[in-house]
Amino acid sequence: MSHATLDDRGRLTLPKELRERYGERYHVVDLHDGIKLIPIDEDPLDALRDEFADVDETVDELRQGAREAALTDAGR
User: What domain count does the chain have?
Assistant: First the structure.
């Protein structure tokens, strides 16, 4: 685990090894018990393609599955 400290202007500097591993841009998410930094890929479309590379269903099939799951959860 690494530690980081805010400077007098409120800036946070991440250790070099973290910047090299995760990049230079992050989403800052405000949680009920702290914050979370989520790295932003240099090319977000490539990141999405990688994330869903193993999905064999079409968009329509995924949408229908989500619709059916929502109806089931709603008790219909």
Answer: 2
Statement to judge: residues 27 and 49 lie in one domain: no
**pTM for the full predicted model:** 0.54
Nearest residue to 14 (alpha-carbon basis) of 42, 33, 43, 35: 35
CATH of the domain at 3: 2.10.260
Indicate the helix (H) or strand (E) that contains 29.
strand 26-31
16 closest CA partner among 37, 2, 35: 2
| Main-chain dihedrals φ then ψ at residue 11, nearest 5 degrees | -90, 145
The Cα–Cα gap between 59 and 38 comes to 26
pLDDT digits (tens, 9 = 90+) for 30-69: 999 999 999 988 888 888 888 888 888 888 998 999 999 9
Specify whether 49 is located in the same domain as 21: no
